[in-house]
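Entry 12.
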Amino acid sequence: SQTPFGREGAPCALDRTLGGLFSGALYEAAPARMGDHAAASGFAFGLASRLAATVQAPLIFISDEFSTRETGAPYGLGLAAHGLDLTRLVYVRSTGAQDLLWALEESLRAKAAACVVADLGSAARAFDLVAARRITMAARMSGTSAVLLHPPASFNRPMAQNGARMRFEIRSARSAEPHNYR
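Predicted 3D structure (tokens):
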């Protein structure tokens, strides 16, 4: 069963905007364009950080070789800036699409993670309705939420509909204020 986050005490701004986040749910994010992957990744990790805030368990990040070559490996200071406690992060790097989907499903079924984030990369093609149903059911049965990061324009595919609770298309924008990084 899915339970809402942020119901005890004052909900955070993200909870108020989204109407609450739920355990055991599948969330999806995709960059709007090729150059928006960093923004979409930051959003996915920020969402995962919020989902993991009330659970003292590791946050699992799964990526494949292709995604790592194309977009790079996670950057610790960047992840920390999105609210992630790096001492709780487990990084899984798969060799291909089937391994990534297997690791995602097993991470959810294990009930040991606070949240699972998967950068689908080349596995997006293998993420069909059957795989989506398996991942959605694993999340619901375990109570562990998953945040899937899709490649650009993934939500425009005919088979893009699945059991995700919420989907986000992320577009990068200029910072509101200039930052001094000296």
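Annotation: The chain has six helices and six strands. The mean pLDDT is 83.
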